[in-house]
Amino acid sequence: QVQLVELGGGLGQAGGSLRLSCVAPGRTSNGRDMEWYRQAPGKEREFVARVPWSGDNTYYADSVKGRFTISRDKNTGYLQMNSLKPADTATYYCHLRLTNYWGQGTQVTVSS
What we know:
The chain is mainly beta. 0% of the residues lie in helices and 47% in strands. The chain is globular.
């Protein structure tokens, strides 16, 4: 079972910044898009952002566009979260697109 490892998260303030990292083991992420999802309590898991293997043509959910930036360096992905809002509070998951490979989730809590 492939397990992605997420780092970062924690407690942030509204208007502040946090950075998440995701490490995919070995060559599991080769050629694959890397994505971030999030799930708030009582809500469905939702797509946040995607970066392809090439690192360009990134995609974002409307709710984070202009505030979050996804990037990657081969098997390590990053999610830079700026201008945080309390609505960004959720567990964030890293995922390799078109696979069943997920991270364990990392909690992000934004206080007002």
